[in-house]
Amino acid sequence: MLEEKSSSGGAQSKRDNHRSGTPAGVQALASLLMELQPSSDGPQILAADALYQLGRVEEAYRLLLAIRADAVVKEILSLKDRARTLLCDWLHQFCRNSLSDAVVTNPVPCLEEQLKDAFVVSGALMRTDSREPLWHLLYVDTLLAKGERVAAGAHLCQVFGQEPRDAVAQARLGVMEAWQQNYCSAARRLSKLSEKGSPILDFLLALLPFNHRKCTAQAAAQEASSVSLCGQWDRALALLTVAVQAEGHLKPQYLRQRAACFAQLGLHERAISDLDKVIQGHDSASGSDDLKIRAEDLCCRGRSLVLCSKEGAALEDFTQALNLHRDQTIQCVEAGLGGAHLAECFLRGALQHYGEQQLTKAWTLIESGLSVDGENAELRRLRARVKREVAIPCIVN
């Protein structure tokens, strides 16, 4: 009797779901309709919509792909504007993610089977609204992933023109030019996209084999060096972003160049971020050239830290740089903050440690400050005071 009551309560719950129009109820109703009308596409689309609302995105996506493309287009067009827009945007984003995964996990050109979903969805979206550029770009990217560069170029030019103004379309031309080994032009076109900070740049670079990416990075870095000589730091930054991302953030020289651009533009936090990666990659080699480079990296980061009002961390960098290569450090300081300015920073740090009776730390900063500006009277007076108060022979010596 209890079981019958429970069953009756479950049936009542289902009826309530259907009447209330909840996603769970709609999905249950659609499942029933799919059993009664297995040849009809309508219930499947209804079920897919309900699954999407329930957060079961993967199931919804697979169900839609199982339906004939003609039926999908017809049903999408039958929806009201807002519902149609939401469904198309969702399909596009899900397919874009799927395509990115395929490109990252498989060598380009990908196999057709790996791109089947992207071709079906992009085709359906273009037929739904041929005026939407995003659908065409998805189709072009799918062709590029398959290695169909001629077809991709033809479709791109048909939709966007022979010389598109839009940065996202220009970037696709850049990918094709990199395949044709026209690396300078490719770097310029791709840099238009990096100027906008677009996350799609990583995906487009992944459409290129390693050697093409490497050559594109070299061309971008060389072009950046040329335009920076003319003071065009924004252009140089965009080009160096292409170089850095094409090399997977692994090339220290490109990170150094980009950090210099950030610093020139006053974007010191971002300069520090790039130099953090460079300095983390310092190895244990002890050659004089290597020590000079490492000291210079520390000086560059130290300068940006000072200009970000992070003097404590900056003084650590400059002190370490002095220990690595004193002459190179002094040269970098004179070309950057200037010895007098940096000595004042060392004085503030030393006074703070002195006030806290951390005399060993104070002594270290005093000596570093006098290394960059031996004429600083305040540092000399503080040095004499610490000498009088400290009885540790190694410090006095």
UniProtKB/TrEMBL annotation:
Domain of life of the organism encoding this protein: Eukaryota
Listed InterPro entries: TPR-like_helical_dom_sf, TTC34
Region (Disordered): 1-21
Matching Gene3D superfamilies: Tetratricopeptide repeat domain
Protein name, entry field: Tetratricopeptide repeat domain 34
Source organism of this protein record: Nothobranchius korthausae
Gene this chain is encoded by: TTC34
